[in-house]
Specification:
With 270 residues, the chain is α/β, with parallel strands linked by helices. It has a single domain, classed as Ribonuclease Z/Hydroxyacylglutathione hydrolase-like (Metallo-beta-lactamase, Chain A). It is 26% helix and 29% strand. The protein is built from nine helices and 15 strands. The strands form two sheets. Strands 6-5-4-3-2-1-14-15 form an eight-stranded mixed sheet. Helix 8 runs parallel beside helix 9. The protein is globular. It starts with a strand and ends in a 10-residue tail after the last strand.
Length: 270
């Protein structure tokens, strides 16, 4: 199984998962053009795409869905609450329910409810029969149910949105700080660290920190928090706005690398 985090953060989120002849895209929070270009930079295309799964209706998770699905009409899946906030439909799509598994060829996805200020947000577990990975962002807390479902994954992609002190002393208005730090906001580094510690099992092969705030966090802080838990037993990486992360799971082996994201058209790389 190969996983490519195409983008992660408040400016857009998209994760490509492929195994054998089947692939899914979890969230399309970047433009369709960016999806194509980033996939190409990682050595992939959309020929094997079987479905798009949207975790919730916020713009940074679905803004590219309409154009992408017009060009590549595959089924779109979301929870009933999320469907209410989407303005795109595709033939063969369906409704996700927390805890209910849906199959797309050789890939099976299981949504799990998260705690966020959206209509019906979920994390997504993806299983190909040999490996299980979790994509979990946009949750203010890791509930007992979420923790139970994520425990035992081979790859844990977990939000580490902000550093509590940087958020507290940063420039955001107070109401926004309260929202981010609330039970329906985003996980802080220390919360992700504590959750990872509780979910650490022999099955874990790698960890990727997601949805890093550009103003209220530093990739090095998030990485250090999670690396402390695993203590060198598995690799830890951080996905950001300007780079991608590729993870390959092959039996008990794992390879993880950061890839430069191609610059947006009309802009030069920085």
């Amino acid at each position: 199984m190969e996983i490519v985090v195409l983008a992660s953060g408040s400016s857009g989120n998209a994760v490509y998962v492929v195994s054998g002849g089947d692939a899914i895209l979890v969230d399309v929070g970047i433009s369709a053009t960016s999806v194509h270009r980033r996939l190409a930079a990682a050595g992939h295309d959309l020929e094997r795409l079987r479905a798009v799964v949207v975790t919730h209706e916020h713009t940074d998770h679905m803004k590219g869905a309409r154009v992408l699905l017009k060009r590549h009409p595959v089924p779109l899946w979301a929870t009933q609450g999320t469907w209410g906030g989407l303005d795109v439909r595709t033939p063969g799509g369906g409704t996700l329910r927390s805890g209910v598994t849906v199959s797309f060829g050789g890939l099976r996805i299981t949504p799990v409810a998260t705690s966020h200020d959206a209509a019906e947000p979920v994390a997504v577990l993806v299983d190909d029969g040999s490996h299980r990975v979790a994509v979990c962002t946009d949750t203010g807390v890791v509930t007992p149910l979420l923790e139970e479902r994520l425990r035992g994954c081979n790859l844990l992609m977990l939000e580490a949105n902000h550093d509590a002190d940087l958020l507290r002393h940063g420039s955001y208005p107070w109401h926004l700080k309260q929202r981010i730090a609330s039970r329906h906001g985003h996980l802080a580094n220390h919360q992700a660290q504590e959750a990872l510690d509780r979910m650490l099992t022999r099955d874990l092969r790698g960890v990727v920190a997601l949805h890093i705030s550009e103003e209220n966090n530093e990739p090095s802080l998030a990485e250090a928090c999670l690396a402390t838990v695993v203590n060198g037993s598995v690799p830890v990486s951080v996905a950001g706005r300007h780079h991608m992360v590729r993870v390959v799971l092959d039996g008990d082996a794992v390879t993880m690398e950061r890839l430069g994201a191609p610059p947006a058209r009309g802009r030069t790389a920085r």
